[in-house]
């Protein structure tokens, strides 16, 4: 198995706050890893380190063969990583001044210098895939939250990433729109995309994840197959967290 | 004592052709100065939010100096003071354009800074995460959005600068107010002439407001 992500003894601080403590984690090609934990536990920070949106202070991080140096060193590796890693944000972060289709075409045009017709065809195909082909020429503000998040997924896929990061992709959505976004993610997982997903959707985690990681105060305290973590958690912190989130 | 004042319409109308000669100068100084001021504003506005202090400090100094001193003093300094430094006279038109450029540039820097800083950080993160470089992210994602938000305050600054050119009558540029003063010196019809002068400024600024409103409506429709 090829390792897409490899973290060894990674530490991250916000000022004096130690947010990630000695993180050891690997993600294999085709694997879906779901990261759960309370808010403020460091789970978002963890995946934001993978594409360099957050710098780390010490340890080792290799993404698809590119090694990132601590404190934002090795900008060349970072540029490579960002071309190969897609990210979906909680707040969608679509570009409001561009149409849906132009949102998707921007990175292929600018980064890969793809010719207009090819980028356009890719955008059409991806919009079809996420089920919103009819909205191509609208501006993001005219779409529902669920549709916007599906555009955001299509936008990331347009760069043909080797790894997709999802940072609480359904947390900003109205309940009735969560399903349509999770469906797209489920499809993606089925097609073999390597994914790291931070989410509070325990049903999705149980169903789609190959591995679930529970993170508590910046430390990985439990890790395993979803059935094991959810039904038979070993660490008492995991037990307490799951009893809180699964109770309601 | 009885005092009766009569507005002399004929005097007002007679002054128009002479006053109109000042308008090209008013427009040239305003828009010439604003064009340069816009470039200065982009440069110093962006420098003022640079992470590196040696870019940020000089930009901040420029902004504070030209916002914190009266434009009348600035133009007097350029016209009467600078020749001592450069060793030759500066013509009034150049001095006027330079004063508008430097002064509006300082205010526009603040407009640029505010516009750029108002764009959500998530936009930059989305651009970077897609593999765009910092400058690609800025120019194709942040700047177009920031610029739309800058249009109303830029219009505001344009109107302020147009009116500021009226002060440059003191250095003898033949702009609108100067033309009025010369005309009044010969006809003693101050009320009528300044009334017409005021109307001419209003015509210029109202036309600009109208154009800006059209641009705004078109530009902001999609966001």
TrEMBL record, chain A:
Q: Which residues form the ABC transporter domain?
A: 5-242
**Which keywords does this Swiss-Prot/TrEMBL entry list?**
ATP-binding, Cell inner membrane, Cell membrane, Hydrolase, Membrane, Nucleotide-binding, Transport
Q: Where in the cell is it found?
A: Cell inner membrane
The record's listing under Gene3D superfamilies reads: P-loop containing nucleotide triphosphate hydrolases
* ATP-binding recorded as keyword: yes
Q: How does it sit in the membrane?
A: Peripheral membrane protein
GO-annotated molecular function: ATP binding; hydrolase activity
CDD domains the UniProt entry points to:
ABC_HisP_GlnQ (cd03262)
Q: Which family does it belong to?
A: Belongs to the ABC transporter superfamily.
List the PANTHER family.
Answer: AMINO ACID IMPORT ATP-BINDING PROTEIN, PHOSPHONATES IMPORT ATP-BINDING PROTEIN PHNC
Q: What is this protein called?
A: Amino acid ABC transporter ATP-binding protein
Q: Which organism is it from?
A: Marinobacter azerbaijanicus
Q: Write the lineage as a comma-separated list.
A: Bacteria, Pseudomonadati, Pseudomonadota, Gammaproteobacteria, Pseudomonadales
UniProtKB/TrEMBL annotation, chain B:
* Family as reported in the entry's similarity comment: Belongs to the binding-protein-dependent transport system permease family. HisMQ subfamily.
Keywords tagged on the record: Amino-acid transport, Cell membrane, Membrane, Transmembrane, Transmembrane helix, Transport
Q: Where is the ABC transmembrane type-1 domain?
A: 23-212
PROSITE patterns reported in the protein's UniProt record: ABC_TM1
Per UniProt, subcellular location reads as: Cell inner membrane; Cell membrane
Q: How does it sit in the membrane?
A: Multi-pass membrane protein
| Function (record text) | Part of the binding-protein-dependent transport system for glutamine; probably responsible for the translocation of the substrate across the membrane.
Is-annotated flag, keyword Transmembrane helix? yes
This one is known as: Amino acid ABC transporter permease
Q: Where are the transmembrane segments?
A: 25-49, 61-82, 193-215
**Coiled-coil intervals, chain numbering:** none
One Pfam family this sequence matches = BPD_transp_1
């Amino acid at each position: 198995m090829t390792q897409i992500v490899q973290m060894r003894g990674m530490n991250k601080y916000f000022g004096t706050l130690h947010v990630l403590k000695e993180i050891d984690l690997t993600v294999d090609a085709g694997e879906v890893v779901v990261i759960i934990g309370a808010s403020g536990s460091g789970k978002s920070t963890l995946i934001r380190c993978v594409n360099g949106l957050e710098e780390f202070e010490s340890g080792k991080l290799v993404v698809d063969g590119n090694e990132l140096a601590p404190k934002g060193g090795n900008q060349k590796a970072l540029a490579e990583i960002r071309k190969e890693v897609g990210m979906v944000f909680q707040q969608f972060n679509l570009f409001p001044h561009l149409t849906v289709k132009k949102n998707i075409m921007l990175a292929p045009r600018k980064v890969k210098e793809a010719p207009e017709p090819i980028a356009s065809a890719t955008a059409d195909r991806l919009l079809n895939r996420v089920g919103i082909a009819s909205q191509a020429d609208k501006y993001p503000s005219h779409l529902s939250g669920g549709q916007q998040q599906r555009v955001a997924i299509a936008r990331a896929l347009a760069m043909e990433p080797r790894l997709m990061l999802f940072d609480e992709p359904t947390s900003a959505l109205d309940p009735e729109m969560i399903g349509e976004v999770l469906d797209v993610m489920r499809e993606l997982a089925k097609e073999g995309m390597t994914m790291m997903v931070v989410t509070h959707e325990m049903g999705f985690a149980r169903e789609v994840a190959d591995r679930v990681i529970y993170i508590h105060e910046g430390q990985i305290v439990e890790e395993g197959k979803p059935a094991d973590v959810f039904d038979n958690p070993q660490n008492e912190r995991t037990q307490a967290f799951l009893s809180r989130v699964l109770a309601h | 004592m009885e005092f009766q004042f009569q507005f002399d319409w004929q005097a007002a109308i007679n002054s128009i052709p002479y006053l109109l000669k000042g308008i090209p100068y008013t427009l040239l100084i305003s828009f010439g100065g604003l064009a340069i001021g816009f470039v200065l504003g982009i440069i110093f506005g962006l420098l003022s939010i640079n992470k590196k202090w040696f870019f940020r400090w000089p930009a901040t100094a420029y902004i504070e100096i030209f916002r914190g001193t009266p434009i009348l003093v600035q133009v007097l300094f350029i016209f009467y003071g600078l020749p001592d430094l450069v060793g030759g006279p500066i013509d009034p038109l150049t001095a006027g354009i330079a004063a508008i450029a430097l002064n509006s540039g300082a205010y526009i820097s603040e407009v640029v800074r505010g516009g750029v800083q108002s764009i959500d950080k998530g936009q930059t993160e989305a651009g970077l995460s897609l593999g765009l470089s910092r400058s690609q992210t800025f120019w194709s994602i942040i700047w177009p959005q920031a610029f739309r938000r800058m249009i109303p305050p830029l219009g505001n600054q344009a109107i302020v600068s147009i009116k500021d050119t009226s002060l440059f009558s003191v250095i003898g540029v033949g702009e609108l107010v100067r033309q009025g003063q010369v005309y009044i010196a010969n006809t003693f019809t101050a009320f009528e002439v300044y009334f017409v002068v005021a109307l001419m400024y209003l015509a210029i600024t109202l036309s600009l407001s109208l154009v800006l409103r059209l641009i705004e409506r078109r530009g902001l429709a999609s966001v």
